[in-house]
Amino acid sequence: MSGPSASLRALRRSAEQRLRDAGVETPELDARLLIEHGLGLTREEVVLNPERSVSELDAARVRALVERRAAREPVGRIVGQRAFWTIELALTPDTLEPRPDTETVVEAVLALLPDRKAPLRLLDLGTGTGCILLALLAELPNATGLGIDVSPGAAKAAARNAALNGLAERAVFRTGDWGAGLTGRFDVVVSNPPYIPSADIAGLQPEVRDHDPLRALDGGPDGLEPYRIIARQLPGLLAPGGIAALEVGQGQAGEVARLLATSGLCEISVLRDLGGVERCVRGRNGLPVG
Asked: Which amino acids does the record list as binding substrate (predicted)?
């Protein structure tokens, strides 16, 4: 990508080709998002005004963003934010970039709540950007939530995301070691813990391996160590009838379901993401709520 771009159309085609040549999976989408960000345009302005002229200075700014993506830096990292569920999340180096698969956890919880206006108390272990907790709070107007993360930077980022989405009055974020030391019971406990086996991290896609924080990926030798910790803590964290919903990696659902059953949870089920992968294990503590 070099030289001036006379029009938005030419810039977009050039960006798409550069990303296609670099092996990026979604070159058309990524090129559009980077152009929108680099030029400060809306999607409609990019799509509906293809002959709009672009100055060389602006084109150079976009080309620099495209080169970062060609080097396999994720679009969300480049633009500094990512859409998730119905909210927008700012990203920092301390946080995992939320993925659409994680919305399965949100759906799993909402499907079991008979009254979305109830004053529920939510807990998110390993909260990262706060994506799961904040998405749920956006759907549950009278709920409050606590997010825990071992990373102080992640806890601060989640608090900023709560403010960004008008949820700061109902969400608190703290550093901690999973559920250790927490008092009281929660109606819902959710988590997307690290679940990649340590030996598999080197083989991950560069967008993940090189840009997501290692401690948000590494689940120990078999990828299941965080689930063992959470499963031991759940009986003391869940209110009677409370719901637990955990994201899992491919092939892990059966073992995580066994861990939850061993911890005393019942009504255990496994939910698939849009790609058909078993992505969430869900269970209850005792009798249903209400």
From this structure: 192-195
Tell me the three state secondary structure of residue 267: strand
Would you call 128 helix, strand, or coil by DSSP? Answer: coil
Q: Alpha-carbon distance 274 to 102, whole Å?
A: 10
Tokens standing for residue 163: 């403010």
User: Among 69, 143, 52, 151, which residue's Cα sits nearest to residue 106?
Assistant: 143
One digit per residue, the tens of pLDDT, for the chain of length 290 reads 444 457 999 999 999 999 999 999 899 999 999 999 999 998 898 888 889 999 999 999 999 999 999 998 888 889 888 899 999 999 988 898 898 999 999 999 999 999 999 999 999 999 999 999 999 999 999 999 999 999 999 999 999 999 999 999 999 999 999 999 998 899 999 999 999 889 888 888 888 888 878 778 888 889 999 999 999 999 999 999 999 999 999 999 999 999 999 999 999 999 999 999 999 999 999 854 44
**Binding site listing for substrate:** 192-195
User: Is the model's pTM score more than 0.70?
Assistant: yes
Binding residue numbers = 126-130, 149, 178, 192-195
Q: What is the CA radius of gyration of the chain?
A: 21
**Structure tokens that stand for 58 in this block:** 């602006």
Identify the H or E element spanning 243: strand 238-247
Binding residues for S-adenosyl-L-methionine: 126-130, 149, 178, 192
Domains and CATH numbers, the chain: 8-79 (1.10.8.10), 90-284 (3.40.50.150)
